[in-house]
Amino acid sequence: MExxxxxxxxxxxxxxxxxxxxxxxxxxxxxxxxxxxxxxxGASDIRVExxxxxxxxxxxxxxxxxxGRDEAPLAFSKHSTSKIESKDDLHxxxxxxxxxxxxxxxxxxxxxxxxxxTADCLSAVKIGVEGGLVGEVTETGSSVGTRVEVRDxxxxxxxxxxxxxxxRTELSHITDTVTRQALGxxxxxxxxxxxxKVVLRCGQGGxxxxxxxxLGADVARQLIPVEYKDDLxxxxxxxxxxxxxxxNREMNYFFVNKRNILSPAISNAVRLGYYTMLPKGRYPAAVxxxxxxxxxxxxxxxxxxxxxxxxxxxxxMDGITAAVExxxxxxxxxxxxxxxxxxxxxxxxxxxxxxxxxEPISSESPVIRENTSNYTAPxxxxxxxxxxxxxxxxxxxxxxxxxxxxxSEARILGQVNDLYIVAETDEGLLLIDQHAAHERIMYxxxxxxxxxxxxxxxxxxxxxxxxxxxxxxxxxxxxxENLGFSLxxxxxxxxxxxxxxxxxxxxxxxxxxxxxxADLFEQGRIKEKKGMEDMLCKTMAxxxxxxxxxxxxxxxxxxxxxxxxxxxxxxxCPHGRPTMITLGKAxxxxxxxxxxx
Length: 597
What we know:
Layout: H1 12-23, H2 27-40, E1 45-51, E2 57-62, H3 102-108, E3 111-117, E4 124-130, E5 133-140, E6 145-151, H4 158-162, H5 167-184, E7 189-194, E8 197-202, H6 207-215, H7 217-221, E9 223-229, E10 233-240, E11 252-256, E12 259-261, H8 264-274, E13 286-292, E14 297-298, E15 309-310, H9 313-330, E16 368-369, H10 380-395, E17 411-416, E18 420-425, E19 428-433, H11 434-448, E20 454-464, H12 467-483, E21 486-489, E22 494-501, H13 511-523, H14 529-544, H15 554-565, E23 580-584, H16 585-591
Parallel strand pairs: 1-7, 11-13
Antiparallel strand pairs: 1-2, 2-6, 3-4, 3-6, 4-5, 7-8, 9-10, 10-13, 11-12, 14-15, 16-17, 17-18, 18-19, 19-23, 20-22, 21-22
């Protein structure tokens, strides 16, 4: 393409495609915009049908008020809407849509057919649009409501179509979109079908019943009600008990004035309400409805309306934190002692472990732990993780001898902040990141043992999944089985794990599977089977490695360095972070200004 020499106006079709790119990012964007329109039309039943993960066909059918014959052609005109009259209305928006961009943006990058009927008409109106060009308006038979069919999404923007992710990933985004809309509107029935098969179906009801339907009974059992009101906001919904959490904010569902939004600020405010009840880097589940004066909320700050701006954000966040604190104080949080159906087993290959004495409390807390007689014994979890990789290494067939890094010959001095191992070499000081180092060890062992060495669980682990997690898991089951997992369906949203790779030791908590799925979802599109298996190996290695904050004794630190010495690449973790750094004598002299001495 030659670069134009002069400033000129773009043609209408190009303008529309550029504008559509701001609003319609992927098939899930189409689903969201069409559901928003259905909700604004007062629908009580919404049905979403998907083919080809949304690229081939998206059909949304509702029983809302419908569109009249005279208004149907206008529906596809840019900035045509029935929801606001003037700029003053932007400060008190009560509908989900308001810009008049959704249908025109969708029609600019697809082939659309709309059929709609109002209650005062005996017949429905039918209109087709292709690439933004509106066709003839005709009459047809239909029930009251609207049916929008979107075919061949991005057919005229091949670059956008090319960068869509795998079908399962796109379907997962669609499922998440419908899930969020369903949670925000429990009084509306939702159905999601993929290739004619039901992915999600929920009838009209209350919020708790809706959470059971779309998040699963396991999640719903872990939730407690929250209700709060002050001069600025009213809030109601559910938050999870402190013992239930995830590794990311995926289980955060926030609705401000009925609008589903993404809000790190609200997420942080919720987490702050738990104070010290949650481990670092973990997030609670939350389904919260926040009602604020319309004039305090600016919804016109994001093309896809995913974010809002709050004029008194700090005060609102303080109120949300107070609501969470209040709910947690009122709820009985002491767990009951009863058999769990997710009881896990002791690895059939794990050696018996001795009880771990508790560390005495003292007024001084040394930064570097030394090899002293009163050194604290390691936690059972740390011992298990290290023993698992050591045992796996011993079971492997002899490998060709490698030129070592010399790390195993370093003299260990201690541990800093239960994370970094400090050792001395002939060249100076060596600092080792214990998690990154063990992650490298686990990654190479898991990679070499694909299709080999799995262990059967004495007590199978049951895992309850959200609808979105189940959709994602189905894509990865073949690769997981290739690595040594054995999974089978047990109910509509439950899977049973009966075998795991030997190198993982044992599964102590079903949350490991949830974390694994969260990591896989964040990775995005991987077409090749080998690449997918490598990604799984990296994720499993990260989850199996000893953690930051885990105390290690001298024997364990030496064990870790010995195992690291035998890896093919001891210098970086599988994700490219360094496992160790060296502070040479010259650098130490320079730091202490001993240059030239």
